[in-house]
Amino acid sequence: MSALRVGLLGYGRIAEAVHLPILTGLPGVEIVGIAEADPARRAEALRRAPRAVASASFEHILCRPDVDAVVICLPPALHADAAVAALEAGKHVYLEKPIATTLGDARRVLEASRHSPAVAMIGFNFRFSPLYRAARREIQAGALGELVGVRSVFAASSRRLPPWKQTREGGGGALLDLASHHVDLVRFLTGREVREVFAAVRSQRSEADTATLHLRLADGLLVQSFVSLSAVDEDRLDIYGQAGGLAVDRYRSLGVETTRAGRPVRRTDWLLAPLRPLARGASLLGRLRAPSYEPSYRAALAHFVAAARAHRPTSPSFLDGSISLAVVEAAEESARTGRAVLCPSILVDDAADRPPQATRPELSEATPQEA
Questions:
Q1: Residue 175 · residue 328 · CB < 8 Å
Q2: Domain 128-291 adopts which CATH fold?
Q3: Where are the domains of the chain?
Q4: Strand, coil or helix: 324
Q5: Which of 157, 261, 320, 332 sits 20 to 30 Å CA-CA off 39?
Q6: Measuring CA to CA, which residue among 12, 73, 62 is closest to residue 32?
Q7: Are strands 194-202 and 29-35 parallel, antiparallel or unpaired?
Q8: Would you state the pLDDT for residue 369?
Q9: Are 39 and 64 in contact (CB under 8 A)?
Q10: Who wins on pLDDT, 273 or 253?
């Protein structure tokens, strides 16, 4: 099978640290084009992929007949236009989240995907994390019994943000940047849709950089989330059931941490707790020091490459990206009005609105055997 010829659209921090190194190391991938508006960044990208053609315009890369697929890492305000143009040009598309900055633009992307034979995948890479996949298996096996509630924290320490990330219009803010991931994980792990959102937002270092969300899922399951771009580095998710609970700490866990209901807390548990990080070794230091160390990035991109080479539908789909964005927009409306907001049902309930590649969250576990 011939190599998949890929164009990388955008060469910001995450593309430099994650996408380009992974793509250049994947078998069956050839980087043939790079689009980046900043001349210095473009030159640096070419240094790392010297056989590629570089351009300031993503449209120029999309016009090239030697580009089979694109990985879109542009600022979110450009996601919809770039994805629609790529699909109309017949290119397979891996689109970093969020799918767009407005639900109207997300619908444009969905419509373009329906009319294109190309493979389309949204970059919710955490679905491919071994930790979250193990947690999903525990839940599906009934290890927790009937679910009671979910609690999550996703935060980043204060750091210099690019201009687009400092405003909601540009695609920034904690809801689009961080909460979108956890909304998708809640759907992926529980197999339930979000029906109602209550949220509060605060702006400290940049616009809407901190938020809390209270979600009510389809069966009444309650979810509480805190997200911030101005706190400390933390990414943790706890799920509670009548028979037990589980926790995943993406930065610190080597495996899913489980607790059985009725098991008493022993003195040795909290005495040994401070020693556990020492046993986790260099792997945890690697996760904290380098974003590309997060294994789900490679697994997600490898899955996309395999699907594109085989012209095989895959997930997470653009519908998954649109549903996450719908929840974010509902949260923003709740923060503005101070009341709970129902999520748009058109994306959740209307089967006719589902593109061919879309599946319900309880069935959308993309297999990473290609990674």
A1: yes
A2: Dihydrodipicolinate Reductase; domain 2 (3.30.360)
A3: 4-126+297-316, 128-291
A4: helix
A5: 157
A6: 62
A7: unpaired
A8: 43
A9: no
A10: 253
CATH label, 4-126+297-316, candidates 3.40.1080.10, 3.40.50.720, 3.90.226.10, 1.10.3720.10: 3.40.50.720
- 239-to-132, 147, 234 alpha-carbon distances in Å: 11, 8, 16
DSSP state of 89: T
CA distance 51 to 47: 9
Whole-model pTM: value is 0.88
Which amino acid is it at 141? A
Tell me if domain 4-126+297-316 and domain 128-291 are identical in fold: no
Give the pLDDT confidence of 25-47 residue by residue, as tens digits. Answer: 999 999 999 999 999 999 999 99
The string of pLDDT tens digits covering residues 126-185 is 999 999 999 999 999 999 999 999 999 999 998 888 888 899 999 999 999 999 999 999
Confidence of residue 342 (pLDDT cuts 50, 70, 90): very high
Specify the pairing of strand 222-231 against strand 210-217.
antiparallel
> To 10 degrees, the CA torsion angle through 174, 234, 154, 371?
110
Residue 186, token pair as written in the block: 């809640």
CA distances (Å), 283 to each of 16, 249, 288, 293, in order?
Answer: 21, 14, 9, 9
Predicted local distance difference test score (pLDDT) of residue 1: 74
Higher pLDDT, 186 or 365: 186
At 112, list the tokens: 């373009």
CA–CA distance, 254 with 130 (Å, rounded to integer): 10
